[in-house]
Design goal:
mainly alpha, 0% strand
């Protein structure tokens, strides 16, 4: 497992609308998403995907999002996923790190 695997997954996901649609069906089931990734040969942890997702998109949280995190209303992974927006299914993988 490595950051390069996470990057490969995110790059492949970004360019494959069919793959995005398939994984989007499971966005509320992070463990199912991880299973689908492994079926396709991606061996990375949710933490690695989250780290790469943030690095690729230079996520910057606004004050409201930081307050939500501090108040326990949302995990940092969830807020970052909403900020990124473009790679919604990757957010489900990142959310598994918070579970």
């Amino acid at each position: 497992m490595s950051a390069s695997e996470a990057r490969r997954f995110l790059d492949d996901l970004e360019g494959d609308s069919e793959f995005q649609a398939q994984l989007s069906k499971f966005k509320e089931m992070p463990q199912r998403v991880l299973g689908e990734l492994r079926k396709r040969g991606y061996y990375c942890t949710p933490e690695e995907v989250f780290t790469e997702l943030v690095a690729m998109n230079e996520v910057v949280l606004d004050e409201k999002q930081l307050h939500e995190i501090a108040a326990g209303k949302a995990s940092p992974q969830t807020i970052a996923a909403y900020t990124v927006g473009a790679v919604m299914t990757a957010a489900a993988v990142a959310a598994a790190a918070a579970a």
